[in-house]
Design brief:
Layout (H helix, E strand, L loop, with lengths): L1 E3 L11 E3 L9 E10 L7 E10 L3 E3 L3 E6 L5 E8 L7 E6 L6 H7 E9 L3 E8 L6 E11 L6 E11 L2 E4 L3 E9 L6 E9 L7 E6 L5 E8 L3 E8 L6 E11 L6 E13 L4
Length: 272
């Protein structure tokens, strides 16, 4: 990144300021070139060189992640070690302003920093203290230090919350349903119900929201996976089509699972 004086009066000097983002450069010595274009016919292009040495201030023992099922409380920790001779203390932390859903994650995830070796080594612990909806989350925890050259150190955190029972797909989109005027037509789809762990899943009942929906269910793997094929037969009335299949299971926390079905009916005239 660079900013510069666009106009330099005759006989005067101009300034070019160059900013390099250290974490985007590999550790060690570097040399970068910049091309400056001018309206000087004798110096239309001037190449400037910037060199230096990127020093890693902290070593982080591994990637930080919290992975578990919806009702679990996973924990993880990393060791943050200073690589310079100057003692560095981690004085606090905050969540990066660029973190999506920052307020939700601040409330759901606990963070603790413990000094292991004064001025050199710290332990960063994270744990789930409140359940989050199943999906992936990405965040950055910013460590605050007393080192002027690096007052903040950013640590990436990945959070993966999984369902014990998953439905694929969990929403059915039928898109455009073409029905001839004055007739009816069936459309077929399929979905799977899978127990991510364990083998005690039982689908006890399936209730369609619409009497025009029929289905059949097959146990693919006992207590583990089911396949459901269903047919919908919408009326020949143009507009949105919305329905649902409600599954009742024996699985704790997943006694009722609803799968919405959405589409749009378009009525076409039969050619004579």
């Amino acid at each position: 990144m660079a900013d510069y004086d666009e106009v330099i009066p005759p006989g005067s000097e101009g300034r070019i300021n160059v900013k390099l983002i250290g974490y985007k450069l590999p550790t060690g010595k570097f040399k970068k070139s910049f091309t400056v274009k001018t309206n000087d016919p004798e110096n239309e292009k001037v190449i400037l060189y910037v060199s230096g040495n990127v020093q890693k201030i902290f070593e982080v023992s591994k990637g930080l992640s919290l992975t578990g099922y919806r009702n679990e409380e996973p924990r993880d920790e990393v060791i943050v070690t200073s690589t310079v001779e100057t003692p560095i203390a981690i004085t606090g932390y905050h969540w990066s302003d660029k973190t999506k859903e920052r307020e939700i994650l601040e409330e759901a995830i606990g963070v603790k920093i413990t000094p292991l070796e004064k001025g050199r080594k710290h332990k960063l612990e994270t744990w789930m203290k409140k359940h989050l909806p199943p999906r992936q989350y990405f965040a950055d925890i910013v460590l605050e230090t007393d080192f002027d050259k690096l007052p903040e150190k950013q640590i990436a955190l990945r959070v993966q919350v999984m369902d014990d029972v998953e439905v694929h797909p969990n929403s059915i989109y039928m898109h455009e349903l073409l029905v001839s005027e004055g007739t009816s037509k069936s459309f077929e789809k399929a979905l799977s119900i899978i127990a991510s762990r364990g083998d005690s899943l039982r689908v006890l009942e399936i209730t369609p929201s619409d009497e025009t929906i029929t289905y059949n269910i097959r146990e693919v793997k006992p207590g583990k996976a089911y396949t459901v094929r269903f047919q919908i037969r919408p009326p020949s009335i143009p507009g949105k089509y919305e329905a649902a299949l409600t599954f009742r299971t024996n699985y704790k926390g997943y006694e009722t699972i609803e799968v919405p079905i959405k589409g749009a009916v378009r009525v076409v005239q039969e050619s004579k």
